[in-house]
Structure formats: C-alpha cells, structure tokens
Write a structure and sequence with these properties.
By secondary structure, the protein is of the alpha+beta class. The chain has one domain. It is 44% helix and 13% strand. Strands 2-1-3 form a three-stranded mixed beta sheet, with helices on both faces. A hairpin with a 2-residue loop joins strand 1 and strand 2. The longest helix has 14 residues. The two termini are 26 Å apart. 28% of the residues are buried.
C-alpha cells in the first residue's frame, strides 16, 4: 500500500485544492496538468469559496504538498489509499442519490465548461468530499 506522504490534516487537503484551482489559470504546463486531472477524475474534493467552486481529484488532494513536480510519480501513487485517508479526515463523500449531490455535480460540470473542456464519462458517477 502506497501510504508515504499522505495528508494528515484538513488544512493540507485545502492547500492541495487551492493549488489545483490555481493551476487552472497558471502556466501552460500547469493548465495541461489541471485539465488532465479534472477532466478524467472520478473522486474529487470540492469546496465553495467566494471565488466559486474549486475541485481537485482525491489522488492529488490526498498527498501532502502536492504540485506538478509529482506528475511523473502518479503511477506510484494510489487513489484508493487517498480516498480512505480523505474519508478519515472529512467524512464520507457525496455519491449519486445523496442530498446535495446534484448541486455539486452540476457545479463540477459548470467548472469544466468554464475551463473549456468536457469531463470524461464514468458509469458509477463522480464522488465529492466537501470542505
């Protein structure tokens, strides 16, 4: 199990979500990284701020001090263990059918459209941990 470097506190998750959000308007490399992670993700940490909704995949959110330097290490990282860790810190994610899910999922769809792409389709639907 690939547990080295997992987050331990809510603040670490928040920092990773903010980092991913900033990449959406960052350098060409950062925007490409953002697009790939947001477009293809299934499990996200989401938060609503005065800037609007922000999303980051659990695999990115669940490791401490994450940034684009970890792009080449993604194969060595495990989204399953980050999902467990994030749940330990934030509680259970919203899943399709849960109260509030449709609102957050619509916000995600609006977010990707604002960034100029379409999300990948997933048969089981996306999940969202809320900050």
């Amino acid at each position: 199990m690939k547990t080295d470097g997992l987050v331990n506190r809510r603040a670490e998750i928040e920092a990773n979500v903010e980092t991913m959000y900033a990449y959406g308007a960052g350098s060409t490399q950062q925007r490409a990284f953002h697009r790939g992670r947001i477009k293809n993700g299934k499990n996200f940490v989401a938060r609503q701020t005065d800037k609007g909704w922000q999303f980051a995949p659990s695999k990115f959110s669940g490791y401490s001090d994450n940034d684009t330097s970890h792009m080449n290490k993604l194969e060595d990282r495990d989204g399953g263990v980050t999902n467990i860790r994030i749940t330990q810190i934030l509680g259970e994610p919203l899943s399709r059918g849960d109260t509030g899910y449709e609102e957050v999922d619509q916000a995600y769809c609006d977010y990707v459209r604002e960034h100029g792409f379409t999300p990948s389709r997933h048969h089981q639907g996306r999940k969202y941990w809320l900050l």
